[in-house]
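Most newcomers find our protein records easier to grasp once they have seen one. There is nothing in a record beyond a sequence line and a structure line. Getting from the letters to the tokens is the skill we practise here. An example says more than a description, so a record of this kind follows:
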Amino acid sequence: MDKSKTTDLTNKELSVLEEETRRAESIDRPPDADEGIPPSKIYPPLSFPVLALLAPASILGLLVRLGLVALMSYDGHSVFPLAYAQAVGCLVMGIGVRLKEPIGRTYGPLYTAITTGFCGSLTTFSSWQLDVFNAWINAGQFNRGGFRDFLDGVGISTITFSLSLASLAFGYNIASVANLRFPPTQFPSRPTRYTITGLAILAYAATLLTYFLLPSNVRHQATAALLFSFPGALTRYMLSVGLNRRVKALPLGTFTVNILGTALLAAFHVLQRKTSPVSPNACSILQGLIDGYCGCLTTVSTFAAEIADFDGRRAIRYAFLSWVLGQLMMVLIFGTSIWTGSASKQLTCSFQ
């Protein structure tokens, strides 16, 4: 092959790589001129209206996740409860990605609220990694052998991968085939936009009231998690905007939050399972950090959308590296604490 053809091939590969990277880094960002949005309707990724609207969206995403997991946790369930949250979040993500341009013409921050705020908080990478690790170590103490522990972990991993990608594609195709259109509405006036932003801030302020005013026995179930939902989603979004374009090989921002969130979740579980139990209030706060901060900091919906945007080899490398490092965090932090006797497989602290 002559040199000019080799150069053309290399340039073409670089062009494809840059296009994939651009699509992946724009998944959670407000629509811009590349999506055909008029300049007057474009919002910078870190503008205050975009950041503020993440608050109610992350709260709603968290509540739906906790609700789905609670609803589907019953004796004899045939599907692990977290699968429903991952599927619904990726389904909505697919619809949102397909409708990015019309949503952007209506109100740009709403797109980021749907994808980053709602879908990103409804789905969670860290809890998925915990489920896989608990399967390996048979945390439920089921009557089965080591080989079936292995099969259970493989099943949770592959089903979550497959279900997330299938739900994402299904949502995208629903919006395409059904010719779904975002309701055409006039661009909000300035007072309306200010009101939306103000209500978004008040929504997060309300989580403080729910934590301190509602009975303490519901803190570990929801109110502590609500307190940490917006900080988790905001951290994820900020790191995504700041880091996703740094490395072309993978979306560094999403990759970082998923691994960091998994490590934090493992550490919080160790603290809840110490041989010398922490206080009931600390136990509830830790559960809030697990469900709220780590659950909203990590995401499967954006992770799946990025994988879908990459070519085969790049997608496999990104997915495999994320899964392996997630499990490595679990082994190094949670596993070593259990095997050295400093923590138990079961909860040792009490919420009351």
